[in-house]
Write a structure and sequence with these properties.
This protein has helices spanning about 30-45, 65-75, 85, 105-115, 130-140, 155-165, 195-200, 205-220, 345-360, 370-390; strands at about 20-25, 55-60, 80, 95, 115-120, 145, 170-180, 225-230, 235-240, 245-250, 255-260, 265-270, 280-290, 290-295, 300-305, 320, 395. The protein is an alpha/beta fold and about 400 residues long. Strand 5 (about 115-120), helix 5 (about 130-140) and strand 6 form a beta-alpha-beta unit. Helix 1 (about 30-45) packs across helix 9, helix 4 runs parallel beside helix 5 and helix 5 (about 130-140) runs antiparallel to helix 10. The protein starts with 20 loop residues before the first strand and ends with a strand.
Amino acid sequence: MSEEVGFTSMAGPKAAGEAPEIGIGMLGYAFMGKAHTNAFKKLPYMMYPPVAIPKLVGICGRSEEGVKEAAKRYGYENAYTDWRAMLGNDAVQVFDNGGPNDAHAEPCIAAAAAGKHVFCEKPLARTAEEAKGMLDAVVKAGVKHMVAFNYRFVPAIVQARKFIESGALGKIYHWRAVYLQEWGMDPKMPTSWRFQKAIAGSGALGDLGAHIIDLARFLVGEPKKVMGMTQNWIGARPAGDGSGKMVPSDVDDGFVALVEFEGGALGTLEASRFCQGRKNFNSFEINGEKGSIHFNLERLNELEVFWAGDEPKEARGFHNVLISEGYHPYWGNWWPHGHMIGWEHSFVHEFHHFFSAIVKNGDVAPYGATFEDGYRNAVICDAIVESAAKGKAVDINY
């Protein structure tokens, strides 16, 4: 199996006790805090033999009561309400930033300056300019850095990239991707940071679109030009503090974009939080000269594939491939074929890859998303916003 994607064999004499500990300091304890901690706990005994043992040194959040409860629940040694104090703990070797978007830049830059390796949730920053400052900081510090584009570590998506790398699809002509959810549709829903531009930077674009932009770059290549449209359908939401006041909701609720890739492929991107019935519908299709691939995150252990000329024309069409065999990416660490894994396992693979880069002084790229990838993603997001405002196509310039 390929070391470059962090594949691991179950075989080998190395005992778990020989793996070094890596001290984790986490900012944020809600949705992503839970997902990341779950991965830290599973990693040592599932990605066996482990490349490293995560040590839960500290967790940080704004609410003293909330962060203490999180530390107790998840098993962190220390609870902090000041990320600076957490970074001052020498036992913290990896800073894991799962905070809101406006809390990405300053803590990550400080962590890098303190010599900590940095892992940051997506989108890397609210703007490309902010992301560039973060990229410059980790490069200057010489630390390992990674953005949490965890869908790069879904086995079926890794397998799709392997097909493309092998030339099995030939020249790529089309990329079309959607990421659709429904949770933002209720106008009575109290506001959150995700609806506030000053904190989030953007709405569906950065929250969902960033993922499919990253997958487009991961699987097809660099976009050279985009033309986008954005829409805000609910301009104000309840403050949620019992006052009855309405506060601005000033982010995009949905967007669409056309993309031209450097290799000549054409693409579409669409993301929305206003799609009734769609829970977490992240789906893409790639069409090449020799075949096509379709993926749906809600059926993440499957690929729909079509290979031109691989069967009698009377039976030719898309067919379903169950990605669960021992020879598929990462499956040597999990269960017998047909015994499915889920969304949370992508984080196990992701952190295994990151820790491998740290312990072995290897590269996070190209399979992991570095801060360079996060910066380029932000440039594309900004270009879509610019295109929507100007009503014309915008070139991508990094």
